[in-house]
Amino acid sequence: MNRRKFLGSLGVAIPAVVLVQYLDLKPEPTLSYISNPKLPYDKLPSGWKGTPLRSDGTFQNLFHPFEASLKEVLKWKLKGNPQAEEKKKDKRRLEFQKIDNFQPNGKDQIIWLGHASYLIHIGGVTLLTDPVWLENWVLKRYSELPIDPETLEGVNYILISHDHRDHCDEATLKLLGKTLPQAQILTGLRMSDLLQPWMPKNKIQEAGWFQSYDLKESLRITFVPSRHWSRRGLLDTNQRLWGGYFIESGEKSFYFMSDSGYGPHFQMIGDTLGAPDYAMMGVGAFKPEWFMHPVHTSPMDAVKAFQEMGGKNFIPMHFGTFDLSDELLLEPLDWLTANQDAVGGNLIYPVLGKNLI
């Protein structure tokens, strides 16, 4: 995907319109802290106040407030990719196994469907994360989808981490709304206005950071902080909350990072909820690092975060399916496999459609 389409998907492709936002001279907003009063806090960091909300109605990261910079966007857009020719010649793709018919067999399963999309079965419960399966004007798939979306049944929960189009796809969610009307949507604060029109029959639960969802099953899913941002169009920057998920079932725990830059929140999550047995860590869309590091982790930063959380099994994701940045599609995996001793835990080699545990 070219830069113009990617930047357009984030609402930055029309400089004249965006410039108005950057020249806004309103006073610096103050902070308050909010949560969903219908959902519990089961475990909290010391001194926790709630999810930060600015007085202008936008959400804010815990430690690194997101600052949109038109100058930096244009610098990346106009500078050119030093790996452009290498990318043109690179034909490598992710390894792939077809799923003919998904049938839980009573054992825990984590099946990668590409990018940040997983089919997870743990504790007798089936989850989907960030399903983006149908190509559109923004995203072209460079890896095959291992499953026919219309054949999928028995999903209990669909986890939507934030509103960016490579994690939240209107066409895919409309399809799943028809085929999986019984599945509940677990997401962040203020996401319902976007999702409910696409999935009118599906119940939606919105959580603030460190809140746990109201589930019938003996499973705990907690919405946790990430260092990122949100935007669907031109005028809705950071109006919907973003985050990851910490899933606990029996004696096992699973961390789904979603999108995040590196920061102290990783240590906070580990200290609060414990060391994850399996951590699905974003490692792609990281070049150029000077531009991407506030919102995406490089393989090196992901390993550092994994170690700070005390993770046991490292599952890399967020690479190889969509071309969102300057590096080669499989470059993050190349670094990880060449530096397995540096991971600090067991590196699970990712194969699309294969149970990874």
From TrEMBL:
Organism of origin: Algoriphagus taiwanensis
Pfam families linked: Lactamase_B_2
Full protein name: MBL fold metallo-hydrolase
SUPFAM superfamilies: Metallo-hydrolase/oxidoreductase (SSF56281)
UniProt cross-references to PANTHER family, sorted A to Z: N-ACYL-PHOSPHATIDYLETHANOLAMINE-HYDROLYZING PHOSPHOLIPASE D
Taxonomic placement: Bacteria, Pseudomonadati, Bacteroidota, Cytophagia, Cytophagales
Metallo-beta-lactamase domain boundaries: 127-319
Annotated InterPro entries: Metallo-B-lactamas, RibonucZ/Hydroxyglut_hydro
Lineage top rank: taxon: Bacteria
